[in-house]
Automatic annotation (TrEMBL):
<dbReference type="InterPro" id="IPR003749">
    <property type="entry name" value="ThiS/MoaD-like"/>
</dbReference>
<protein>
    <submittedName>
        <fullName>Sulfur carrier protein ThiS</fullName>
    </submittedName>
</protein>
<dbReference type="InterPro" id="IPR012675">
    <property type="entry name" value="Beta-grasp_dom_sf"/>
</dbReference>
<dbReference type="Pfam" id="PF02597">
    <property type="entry name" value="ThiS"/>
</dbReference>
<dbReference type="InterPro" id="IPR010035">
    <property type="entry name" value="Thi_S"/>
</dbReference>
<dbReference type="InterPro" id="IPR016155">
    <property type="entry name" value="Mopterin_synth/thiamin_S_b"/>
</dbReference>
Length: 68
């Protein structure tokens, strides 16, 4: 079964039980310097594997960028 979620403002369908870690790795080539917020709440990296996505969840994947 698939669930519909919003990732960085775009609708996606993912398999039920997909973790934040799995989805982050599909959108960010490296997880260094990456943060994730699920439904406007920051998810600690140590919780990414245990946090699964549900129907209509909103995930924002943010990448730190150097520069000025």
């Amino acid at each position: 079964m698939k669930v519909k979620v919003i990732v960085n403002g775009q609708a996606r369908e993912v398999p039920e039980g997909t973790s934040v870690a799995e989805l982050v790795s599909s959108v960010a080539p490296a997880v260094s310097g990456v943060a994730a917020a699920l439904n406007d709440e920051v998810v600690r990296r140590s919780d990414w594997d245990a946090t699964t996505l549900r129907e209509a969840d909103r995930l924002e994947v943010l990448t730190a960028v150097q520069g000025g």
